[in-house]
Amino acid sequence: MLLDRVEALLEDERAALLAGRLDRLAPLLAEKERLADLLGKAPAGRPDRLARLARLAARNQALIEAALGGLRRAAARAAACRGGVRQLDTYDAQGARQSFAFGRTRLERRV
Q1: Is 0.85 surpassed by the pTM of this model?
Q2: CA angle 77, 62, 50 (to 5 degrees)
């Protein structure tokens, strides 16, 4: 049944997102588009089942947005590391943040 295939695909998408397997999202997207097209041409399904699929899709969308946010933060952090350390942020025992700025420095790796 079409609705079962859509639900299985949404579960596969969720599993890929939770496992960090972003490489699996492109093939799933192609299948998702194909199933959405079929779903648009199919007779109306059960409203309760369609509502469940909408919730699953919304849940996955939140996971996708979180993954994108994480990738953006990682890219920004990598860019900052490539540019060298210019500021060090620390926190004291009370949780107050302290920032120390540096001039042009070199990041040194010690083994």
Answers
A1: no
A2: 160
- Which two structure tokens, joined as six digits, stand for 50? 């369609």
Q: Measure the CA–CA gap between 94 and 99, rounded to whole angstroms.
A: 15
72 DSSP assignment:
H
How far out from the chain centre does Cα 54 lie?
Answer: 19
For the chain, give every domain's residue range: 2-84
Question: Among candidates 100, 101, 106, 102, which has minimal Cα distance to 81?
Answer: 106
**Could you list the pLDDT tens digit for every one of the 111 residues in the chain?**
889 999 999 999 999 999 999 999 999 999 999 998 998 888 877 888 889 999 999 999 999 999 999 999 998 888 877 766 567 788 888 889 988 776 665 666 777
